């Protein structure tokens, strides 16, 4: 009986601790957002020391929705080893760091995912001089892979499946992996395809390196909050959904003010922009929360194109991240 009461009390205390995240963020006046230590296209500082990137854009959208200011973000650099500890310890309010939504991260690590902002998969990068075209040709090669991540497990499983062997070169982070790979300490670098493309873009001669076409895993990446932080998770989830729905509905950073001011005949756009209904009130925000989120950096398509799209050094095509109406997996639940 004592154990049951103790466990119940612990759950109640945990719930009380997380229930006030929105109030804490508002009181503080800034959003503490955990991001990568520096991954070009997703989260990195520019020459002026300003944070930019696809993940950065989601942090700013949440800050705009909640605080009315997309610049009211304190970006906290996290590694693969520290990101969940920082989140659960309350050092950050939100984690947006190329993080895979899996059973173990969801259940065992006690974090709640608020959606998927990038559908990814693990791949391999090799020097073009090796003349390789398939991951099935990697038998016996040395591979840099980040220790303690799903990436390491995926490599193990892939090589076991095809009865191949490899020499693991464990690394702590992307900076170390990049250095060892370029120095030839490992012949292959394996990570999420988007991450490999971002890293390759920083090389002096990106064209000297090839991403093999084989994708060996599903890596749905998304923002995470503390387990049981339901009200805050709703805000993050529907901010992301607002950016996704805005693209589908033709709402963007250039026309959102005009649509808000002049109105529209499309019911879902009316609800999204707070022209009717009480969605902002239900989230504990005002009616313009989604308008501010969209204006912060644009809708989902704008964020993608500007930071990691085909016309950037990262050069990623939309692929699975196309809207569901265009053959992709991107899909927002309806605003109704």
From TrEMBL:
One Pfam family named in its UniProt record: SBP_bac_3
Signal peptide, first to last residue: 1-19
SUPFAM superfamilies reported for this sequence: Periplasmic binding protein-like II
Cell inner membrane found in the keyword field: no
SMART domains: PBPb (SM00062)
Domain Solute-binding protein family 3/N-terminal: 30-259
Keywords, sorted A to Z: Signal, Transport
Family: Belongs to the bacterial solute-binding protein 3 family.
Name of the featured protein: Glutamate/glutamine/aspartate/asparagine ABC transporter, periplasmic substrate-binding protein
Species per Swiss-Prot/TrEMBL record: Sagittula stellata (strain ATCC 700073 / DSM 11524 / E-37)
């Amino acid at each position: 009986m004592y154990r049951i009461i103790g466990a119940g009390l612990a759950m109640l205390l945990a719930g009380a601790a997380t229930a006030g995240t929105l109030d804490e963020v508002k009181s503080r006046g800034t959003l503490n957002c955990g991001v990568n230590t520096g991954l070009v296209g997703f989260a990195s500082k520019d020459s002026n020391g300003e944070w930019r990137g696809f993940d950065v854009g989601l942090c700013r959208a949440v800050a705009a929705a909640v605080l009315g200011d997309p610049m009211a973000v304190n970006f906290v650099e996290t590694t693969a080893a520290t990101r969940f500890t920082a989140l659960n310890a309350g050092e950050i309010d939100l984690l947006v760091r190329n993080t895979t939504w899996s059973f173990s991260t969801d259940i065992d690590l006690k974090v709640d995912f608020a959606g998927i902002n990038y559908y990814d998969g693990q791949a391999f990068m090799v020097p073009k001089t090796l003349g390789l075209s398939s991951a099935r040709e990697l038998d016996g090669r040395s591979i840099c892979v980040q220790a303690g991540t799903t990436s390491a497990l995926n490599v193990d499983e892939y090589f076991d499946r095809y009865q191949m062997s490899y020499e693991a070169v464990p690394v702590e982070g992307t900076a170390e992996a990049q250095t060892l790979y370029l120095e030839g300490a490992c012949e292959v670098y394996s990570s999420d395809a988007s991450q490999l493309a971002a890293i390759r873009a920083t090389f002096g001669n990106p064209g000297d390196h090839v991403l093999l076409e084989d994708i060996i895993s599903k890596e749905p990446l998304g923002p995470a909050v503390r387990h049981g932080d339901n009200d805050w998770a709703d805000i993050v989830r529907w901010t992301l959904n607002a950016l996704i729905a805005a693209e589908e509905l033709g709402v963007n950073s250039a026309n959102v003010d005009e649509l808000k001011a002049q109105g529209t005949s499309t019911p879902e756009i009316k609800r999204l922009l707070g022209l009717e209904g009480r969605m902002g009130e239900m989230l504990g925000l005002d009616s313009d929360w989604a308008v501010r989120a969209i204006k912060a950096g644009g809708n989902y398509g704008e964020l993608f194109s500007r930071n990691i799209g085909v016309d950037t050094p990262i050069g990623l095509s939309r692929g699975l991240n196309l809207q569901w109406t265009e053959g992709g997996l991107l899909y927002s639940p309806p605003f109704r």
